[in-house]
Amino acid sequence: MTDKASAPPSDAILTVPNLLTFFRLGLIPVFLYAALGLDNMGFAVVIAVLGFITDLVDGKIARRFGQVSKLGIALDPLSDRLGLASGAAVLIVKHLAPLWVVLVVIARDAVLVLAGAPVLKARGLPIPPVTKVGKYGSFAVTVMFGLFLASGIHNAAHPTQAIRVAAFVFVFVSLPLYYASGAGYVRAAFSSLKDQTGRGDTERRRVN
Questions:
Q1: How far, CA to CA in Å, does 127 sit from each of 16, 73, 102, 123, 175?
Q2: What is the pTM of this model?
Q3: What are phi and psi of 119, to 5 degrees?
Q4: b vs e for 101-127, b when ≥16 Cβ sit within 10 Å of the residue's Cβ?
Q5: Which ranges in 65-154 belong to alpha helices (H)?
Q6: Which residues contact 34 (CB under 8 A, 6 or more apart)?
Q7: HSE value, Cβ hemisphere, 13 Å, CA-based, for 84
Q8: Nearest-5° Cα angle at 55, 54 to 58
Q9: CA-to-CA distance for 41 and 148, rounded, in angstroms?
Q10: What is the pLDDT of residue 58?
Q11: What is the SS3 assignment for 130?
């Protein structure tokens, strides 16, 4: 009997994890409208937390019930990047976090997604799988962004200053993890490129 967790990805589209990912993608414009259109940071943070929860559970459901799909593998990281980008946009527009913090996060993703991924795709090589350090780094960055967003909720009962302090604590926890995982992905990509080049040189020598 095939283990559900180790079964190869399917071509299925309408799985529960994929529907959760579609739902998370649909929350992004709602989040942006709540934060920038309605200027309601409380509502925006609720939407962000809802998206974060779906991100935590969809992968677990996929592995537990054998619903890992090719679409989910491609769509889940895309939704993560778009969600992070929307959060970064709100933080910049609303001046809720230091600009350098947001730019450091965006720069890491830009290098991996806009530079690294196209090179690997052009060479027919797979994107390096997500590592544990990558998961921890992404989780910490998400929490950091969430805390900075929550600091924009202004009412008498809301401890804005304490939340900002917590956000800055996560700055010094999340950024090293985030960049350590990025360096790991770069090393894995270069290793794949080197192996491919080595195989190509070996085949050419055999032909000659």
A1: 24, 11, 25, 11, 22
A2: 0.86
A3: -65, -45
A4: bbeebeebbeebeeebbeebeeeeeeb
A5: 70-93, 99-110, 117-122, 132-150
A6: 40, 41, 43, 44, 47
A7: 26
A8: 75
A9: 11
A10: 87
A11: coil
The pLDDT value recorded for residue 193 is 84
CB 58 within 8 A of CB 21: yes
Task: Indicate the helix (H) or strand (E) that contains 167.
Answer: helix 160-207
CA–CA gap between residue 14 and residue 171 (Å, rounded): 37
Cα 44 → chain centroid: 19
* pLDDT for 2: 43
What is the reported pLDDT for 124? Answer: 85
Per-residue model confidence as pLDDT tens digits over 30-82: 999 999 999 999 999 999 999 999 988 988 888 888 888 888 888 888 888 89
pLDDT at 63: 83
Strand, helix or coil for residue 35: helix
In the block, residue with structure tokens 């990509």:
189
Residue 13 gets which letter from DSSP?
-
Buried b (16+ CB within 10 A) or exposed e, 174-192: bbebbeebbebbeebbeeb
Question: Please, which residues bridge with residue 69 across strands?
Answer: 10
- Minimum mean pLDDT range among 6-10, 47-51, 72-76, 148-152: 6-10
Structure token pair of residue 66 = 């054998």
**What is d(CA 34, CA 121) in angstroms, rounded to the nearest whole number?**
36
